[in-house]
Amino acid sequence: MDFQLSLESEGVGSAYPDQPLAATADDSVGNVMQLLRAQRTGSVLICEGEKLVGIVTERDALKAMSGDISITASVREIMSSPPATIASSATVGDAIRKMSEGGYRHLPIVDSEQKPKGVLAVHGIVHYLVDHFPETVYNQPPDPKSKNKEREGA
Question: Cα dist. 107→31, 57, 68, 111, 143 in Å?
Answer without folding.
Answer: 21, 10, 27, 13, 28
